[in-house]
Amino acid sequence: MFDNADAILLARIQFAFTVSFHFLFPAFTIGLASFLAVLNGLWLWTKDHKYLDLFRYWVKIFALAFAMGVVSGIVMSYQFGTNWSAFSDKAGPVIGAPMAYEVLSAFFLEAGFLGIMLFGRDRVGPTLHMIACAAVALGTAFSAFWILSVNSWMHTPAGFEIDAETGQFLPTDFWQVIFNPSFPFRLMHTVTAAYLTTAFIVGGVAALHLLRHRHRRDKVSPATRTMFSMAMWMAAIFAPVQIVLGDFHGINTLEHQPAKVMAMEGHFESHDEGAPLYLFGIPNQDEQRLDYAIGIPKLSSLILKHDLNAPLAGLDTIPREDQPPVAIVFWSFRIMVALGFAMLGIGVWSLWARWRGMLFDSPMLHRAALVMSPAGLIAVLAGWVTTEVGRQPFTVYGHLRTVDSAAPLDAAAVGASLVAFIIVYFAVFGAGTYYILRLMSRSPANNEPRLKDVTNSPTRTAGTTPAQQHPTRNVQPGE
């Protein structure tokens, strides 16, 4: 089946498939962990039961999403030693330490306090439970910090030298390795994207229940109204912030990875007196042109260099063998930008509805929020594709090519594992995602049950009859 396939291409597809599945869960849980910490803090501060109901509602979803993120991440890491062993050998002395720090700091922080966050409210007291919620939220941010530091180094390598005999990258300054030129922009852009992703999922769930209650003409719970209000505030605040951060990130990318920006913009030719912003076109990399181009004159120069007449170089200045796949980068970038402006539109719409006192009585807004609920997930995937495909044909930009990073494996071996991953992932993570959607389909209840109230039944074989509880058994506090 894979006898005539390219082993390196299959290895890239396999890594793209597994990292895409994995990235969906952290993109959700980074924001959700902070949302839960805020809800718990509001409950302790105000004693308003709607915040506790929301915490109990979303912590069940968080527990499942967090677990699937951990499992999918473990699978990904093995590929560094299988499909990409040459990359691991050469870049390991630099990226090994930050990846270890991610486990030793972020993952240990999350794992150490997760159990207290999920089950410890009645056992450790409100103060320590609040500390646990904050620690889990901080741990997810630490995880993003270290992983994005490694990834950013691969795009803008710094603080290293290459051993002449082994070809290995050796660290000379770990501060430069960690805080490489693109890292601050990439970290802010990605973490903000995670918060927006969570906001639109939470807002979409709340919109679903607002529409259902409107259809049934029954009373909406205070928790549902609060959930929608908080999500729309996040959308209104963070969507414009994300667009500004994206502009900063784009300018930084133009400085350090100009070929990527040329592909994003569809600029095959250089422009000496202002470059147009192409809204639409069909990249023709073989002929080095953008067919059927529709653009706005000089707007790209204004955005990237803040000068209408600023010159911009094109892909005609980049050797063919160093150009990224333009069509993929061109279209994934436009998907990301389009969704970003759509999220901004929802945020502005929600402000207008809030000002009119119609935030909870605007079915058109609720339908739009429901449709946009997966927009954050799609946008982060499109952004990830833009970033990673735009780095090609390098794994360490400008220094190590992808073709020199792969392990010497046959295409049949890589293809077989790819097929196995696809089958297992869709079965396991498909079931988990289905269960998450089932949890979301139920609206938050007044006096929402605790997580341990729905998980403390003993596991038993299907079809057997559980034993009667002994009438004299004493139930301990917190059980």
From TrEMBL:
A Pfam family the protein falls into: Cyt_bd_oxida_I
Entry's transmembrane regions: 23-45, 57-80, 100-120, 127-148, 192-211, 223-245, 328-352, 364-385, 411-437
Swiss-Prot/TrEMBL keywords: Cell membrane, Electron transport, Heme, Iron, Membrane, Metal-binding, Transmembrane, Transmembrane helix, Transport
Record membrane topology: Multi-pass membrane protein
Compositional bias of kind Polar residues: 454-479
Region described as Disordered: 447-479
InterPro entries noted in UniProt: Cyt-d_ubiquinol_oxidase_su_1
Protein localization: Cell inner membrane; Cell membrane
Main location: membrane
Record family assignment: Belongs to the cytochrome ubiquinol oxidase subunit 1 family.
Name of the featured protein: Cytochrome ubiquinol oxidase subunit I
Annotated source species: Paracoccus marcusii
